[in-house]
Amino acid sequence: MHLHPPVLHASGIAKAYGSRRLWHGIDVTVPRGGSLAITGPSGSGKSTLVRCLGLLEHVDMGRIEILGETVTHVTSRRRMQLYRSTIGHLFQNGALEDTWTVRQNLDVAFIGSTLRGRARVPVRQDALAQVGITAPDSATAHTLSGGERQRLAIARLLIRRPPVVLADEPTAALDAATGSDILQRLSDLRDGGSAIVVATHDPAVVDWADECLDLGSPVSR
């Protein structure tokens, strides 16, 4: 039983590419401060489901709601507003701008914020300290390791604190210690009230999540 109304809710959603059906009749409910792991074999559509819930792809049928608003077929303008204010994405490669500095990549999180100039400095420093990044603000993203890139992407989310966080294989290709740190930072977001959905094949992530949706199960088909 959920203690809070759902932040993210999807009912009866389906997705196919041509004659290949990935999944149909999928229902998802994630409350404030809740987390869901989406698992299943390769090709089952884990990443696609996360992308659909994050409005990066369209579903073929069904309905998606965020904070009570039906967002299944929103306009491009409204989708961009949701990306800036409500939805946070965490991709396997961090989705950073390689030629930008650490500071420039973090400053994306301040879009729509009233914080300007020097007022952003302590917020950036606190976020970097939380994720354990010691690289200078002037370091470019392409000089960071894979683990540091994920940490920087998490720091950006910690600044924004979006109500919905969609993560696609956030611990893939990371060593166990770094993966554990990424999960801890996702826990920080969850504890702060974010609803988190993670596509994963990592058993540690499945154990971490409050609930699990297995796309390889007949129930999910």
How is the topology of this model organized?
Layout: E1 6-17, E2 20-31, E3 35-39, H1 46-53, E4 61-66, E5 69-70, H2 76-85, E6 87-90, H3 102-107, H4 121-131, H5 146-160, E7 164-168, H6 176-191, E8 195-199, H7 203-208, E9 211-214
Parallel strand pairs: 3-8, 3-9, 6-7, 7-8
Antiparallel strand pairs: 1-2, 1-4, 4-5
Helix pairs in contact: 4-5, 5-6
Give a written overview of the molecule.
The chain contains 7 helices and 9 strands. It is α/β, with parallel strands linked by helices and 221 residues long. The protein has one domain: P-loop containing nucleotide triphosphate hydrolases (Rossmann fold, 3-Layer(aba) Sandwich). The strands form 2 sheets. A 5-stranded parallel sheet has the order 6-7-8-3-9, sandwiched between helices. Strands 2-1-4-5 form a 4-stranded antiparallel sheet, with helices on one face. α4 (121-131) packs across α5 (146-160) and α5 (146-160) runs parallel beside α6. The chain is globular, with a radius of gyration of 17 Å.
